[in-house]
Predict the structure.
Amino acid sequence: MAASTRRTVLSLYTRVFRVARGWQALSGVPSDTEAERKYILQEAGTLFRQNQQLTDDESIKRCMEECEARIEMGLHYRNPYPRATYLPPLGLATQKGRKLKAQQRLRKQAKPVYLQSQDET
């Protein structure tokens, strides 16, 4: 990993901690605020540890874009949890005779950038 990429990743990591430190729940209830702060810190720790072994510049860039998108969406909507996608499994229309592999490819393409790290359900 290049030094500038490492610096950018560490900057994102510290930004997540700053957001968590200043986080206030939309409901204003102190217990909700603490639960959401704890979620932000746990999610960041999990995802950064999960991706720390990445060496491919393209995959690192995708992870950084996802992190930035999740931070911005969390701040905008005042909700730290990822927004749901309403694409049911195998819900995309296909032409007659297409296989399941095509459905899975279309689902992967339709997944928003801020949910790339989430497991398929």
Observations:
- Residues 1 and 52 are 10 Å apart (CA to CA).
- The chain has four helices and no strands.
